[in-house]
Specification:
The chain has helices at residues 2-11, 14-23, 36-42, 44-51, 55-63, 73-86, 116-128, 135-141, 146-155; strands at residues 89-91, 108-110. With 177 residues, it is mainly α.
Length: 177
């Protein structure tokens, strides 16, 4: 029923409204800016200079010569292996039990780096007792640079988990009437 009423109002005096819209004066169109084709037609000397052969530039281009050689593949593999062997590693102090999230079980990390679990543990220890867990102690404990440890403590803060105890009042119940 509502659709019939809506259709009646929509179609009421439709023809007169259409003639009124068609009869209105149209706004003037903005003037067009000159296009790129107009500029090339006006100045053919630019077109000629673009396609003209420039002998001095061509001779300079011919004098350029680039020679490159890739190092042999074995040398690259050996240098990468040497850098991996030179890197000092330390065993993990803390790790997650099991294999969470499908990650590999990591047993050691390079010196100067932390795992996520170790970073959170160190930050939480510093937060709980900042006098005993100073930046110097954390940097010594985890083989970190003192500057990086101070930045870690300053800019990263672990989350605070606050558990609100339930209210002691008995919950109100709806009584049947």
């Amino acid at each position: 029923m509502g659709a019939r009423v809506t259709r009646a109002f929509r179609n009421f005096n439709l023809e007169n409204r259409a003639h009124r819209e068609i009869g209105k004066a149209k706004p003037l169109v903005a003037p067009r800016h000159p296009s790129h084709k107009d500029t090339t037609e006006q100045t053919p000397e630019i077109d000629k200079s673009i396609h003209k052969k420039d002998d001095p530039l061509l001779s300079l281009l011919k004098s350029v010569y680039v020679e490159s050689k890739d190092p042999p593949a074995q040398v690259m593999k050996q240098s990468q292996a040497e850098t991996l062997e030179d890197e000092e590693r330390r065993p993990l102090k803390f790790s997650l039990s099991g294999d969470p999230y499908g990650m590999l079980d990591i047993t050691d990390v390079p010196k100067g780096k932390l795992s996520i679990v170790e970073a959170l543990t160190a930050l939480n220890n510093h937060k709980q007792s900042p006098k005993s867990w100073t930046p110097e102690r954390i940097s010594q404990e985890y083989s970190l640079d003192l500057k990086d440890t101070k930045a870690l403590i300053e800019f990263f803060v672990p989350f605070n988990v606050k558990i609100k105890p339930p209210k002691t009042e008995e919950p109100k119940q709806i009584k049947a009437t």
